[in-house]
Amino acid sequence: MTGSTISRTSASRTSVGRAELLSRTAKATDALSLFAEASTHLRRLMPYDAAVWRVTDPVTGMMTAPIRAENLDEGGCAVYWESELFTGNVNLFRDLARAPVPVAGLRQTTGDLPARSTLYETFMRPRGFHDELRAVLRAGGRPQGHISLFRAEGRAAFDDAETQLIASVLTPLAKQLRSFAEPDPQPLPQPDGPHGPGLLLFDPSGALLSVNDDALVYLDALPEGPAVPSPQGIRVPSFIQATAMKARAVAQERDRGQARARVRNRAGRWLVCHASCLRETGGGLGASAVVIEPAKTSEIVPLIVDAYELTDRETEVTQYIARGLPTGEIADRLHLSPHTVRDHIKAVFEKVGVSSRGELVGKLFTEYYAPLAEKNMTRVHTG
C-alpha cells in the first residue's frame, strides 16, 4: 500500500469518525453527556491520556460547572489555575478565545520547548504529561467551554492534523452547549433556598479560610465535579476556587475581566458566583471573598437570548416587547419601519418557539429556573 493510499484511508477514517462524533453529541441533552460522547469518540481518532472538559460563562469566560475530568487527581486544580492567572504562560484561554482558530498545542506553540511554559513545569511534568492540546468551544464569538487534552511521556506530541480535527468540531459542540441555557418548557416548582448570600473567604494561595452556613447549603446543591479539600473538611468546587484566584489576579493587575460566573445547581436553579479581593488595614491585598446567590433575571436573560441565537437587532426588539411597547413605538426608537419590526418579531417568535408577545415575555423574562434532567456525574477513569 502506497503512502498516498494510507493517507487517504486515514483521512476517510477521520472523516467518518468526526461525523459520528457530531451525530452522537447532537443528541446530548446536557453538558456532561455531551462531554462524555465527544471524549469517547475523540479518543478513537486521536488518543490522549487525560482530559478536562469545562463549561464556561459566555460573558466573562470564567470556568463554571459542570466539569468532566478524566484520569486526573484532584490535587492540581490550584496549581493549574495559578499558572493560568498569575504567570507569563502560553496559549492562555483568554487569548485563545479571541484567536482566529481557538486551539493550540503546547509543543507546537513553543517549538518543542515546553519548559517555556510554567504550566509544564509546575503541573504537567510532575504528573508525567508530555503535551497539552487546549481549545475554546466558541459560538457567536463567545466562549461556551474549554477543553484540555493531555498526553503522557512516551507518546508523540499533538500534530497539525489533530489540531485541525479539534478545530473542525469546536463550533458545533459550542452551539450545542449554548442551547442548554434554553428554559425548560415545563419548569417544576423549586424548594426555598438559603435566605442570604453564601460567603467564602480564601487566602492568597487559594485555601479556604472560612465559610458561612448559607454557602454550605449552596455548595451542597452544586453539580458534582472536581473539588479541592479544605481544613474545614469541605470539598470546594474547583470553579469556585478559580473564581477567588481570578479576583486576586485582577486586583494585582495580572489579569483583566470579571471574576463572575453563572451556574445551575442540581435542581436547575441559576446561581451567580462573584468574587473580589479585600483590602487590609494598611491597604494591602487580603482575603478573596466569593459570594454565591440566586441569579436575577437580568443575569440569565443574556444566556437564554444567546441560546436562541437572536441577532443584536432581534434582541433589541425583544427587550422593547418586554417593556410593553407597541410596534410603532419600537419602530420609532430603532429608526425602522413598522414592517421591518414585524419581520423581526416574526423571526424571534420562530426561533423561540412562541406565537404571541405574552408567551415570549413569559418564556424569556419570567424569573423561574428550569430543572436539570440528569444526575451530574463528572469524574471518570477510562481504560
List the helices and strands and how they pair.
Elements: H1 3-25, H2 31-45, E1 50-56, E2 63-70, H3 77-86, H4 93-96, E3 103-105, H5 106-109, H6 118-124, E4 129-139, E5 142-152, H7 160-179, E6 198-202, E7 208-211, H8 213-220, E8 227-228, E9 236-237, H9 238-251, E10 260-264, E11 270-279, E12 285-294, H10 297-307, H11 312-322, H12 327-334, H13 338-352, H14 357-365, E13 379-380
Total number of beta strands: 13
Structural class: alpha+beta
Tell me which oligomeric state these chains represent: single chain
- Please give the count of helices: 14
Fraction of residues in H or I helices: 40-55%
Q: Indicate the low-confidence ranges by residue numbers.
A: 367-379
Give, in order, the helices and strands: HHEEHHEHHEEHEEHEEHEEEHHHHHE
Shape: globular
What Rg is obtained from the alpha carbons, in whole angstroms?
A: 22 Å
Beta-strand fraction estimate: 15-25%
